[in-house]
Specification:
5 helices, 189 residues, seven-stranded antiparallel sheet, three-stranded antiparallel sheet, Bactericidal permeability-increasing protein, domain 1, 10 strands
Length: 189
């Protein structure tokens, strides 16, 4: 029994030292490349949806553009639409942009502030185009808002936590995402 007390004290001292080191060492950064992000966003595609029982719309995997100046990511997806009433086929695209946020409940990076920037389908009559734009906006927001694009492994973040770090700001860079691991607020004090 006498030997457990020194071991416990040594372990507690080591934890305190590691935690203090986090505030001395400053923030760390985890990076997700553009290619990794592209692959994760492409998983649910291609997808098809029926609209107003008239159009069947298929969307292909998105291509990404990184917008570091606004800390957002833009995507463009090729669309094809089949009009079941007239037997017409249409081609076009949809453009969306979004921000990113960290969700501590499941250790994920999720889409936020999803915005439909443009829906364009060549040759589609104006009445369909307006309806499709409104519908696409609501579908995009409903399907993509809070969509998880990355999950941290629990062991990765538990190591960071033991060293006194927590997930901080997510920045869009020219090459991907930079996720700051910053000293925990309770450690930095």
């Amino acid at each position: 029994m006498r030997h457990t007390r020194p071991l416990w004290m040594a372990g507690a001292t080591a934890c305190l030292v590691l935690s203090a080191c986090a505030s001395w060492l400053g923030p760390r950064t985890v990076e997700i490349s553009r290619e990794e992000l592209q692959a994760k966003l492409s998983k649910p595609f291609p997808t098809t949806q029926r609209v107003m029982n008239v159009l069947e719309i298929s969307a292909q995997a998105p291509t990404l553009s990184l917008l570091p100046e606004s800390n957002r990511v833009a995507t463009r997806m090729a669309l094809s639409a089949q009009d079941s009433l007239m037997g017409q086929s249409y081609q076009g695209s949809v453009a969306l942009s979004f921000g990113l946020r960290y969700e501590p409940k499941d250790l994920s990076i999720r889409l936020t502030q999803v915005k439909l920037d443009e829906v364009q389908i060549d040759g589609l009559p104006g009445i369909y185009q307006r309806s499709l734009t409104r519908l696409a906006a609501s579908i995009a927001e409903a399907r993509l808002q809070d969509f998880a694009v990355h999950h941290f492994k629990p062991e990765d973040l538990s190591k960071a936590d033991r060293m006194g770090y927590e997930v901080g700001e997510i920045r869009v860079t020219a090459t991907g995402l930079a996720i700051a691991l910053q000293p925990r607020k309770d450690v930095a004090k």
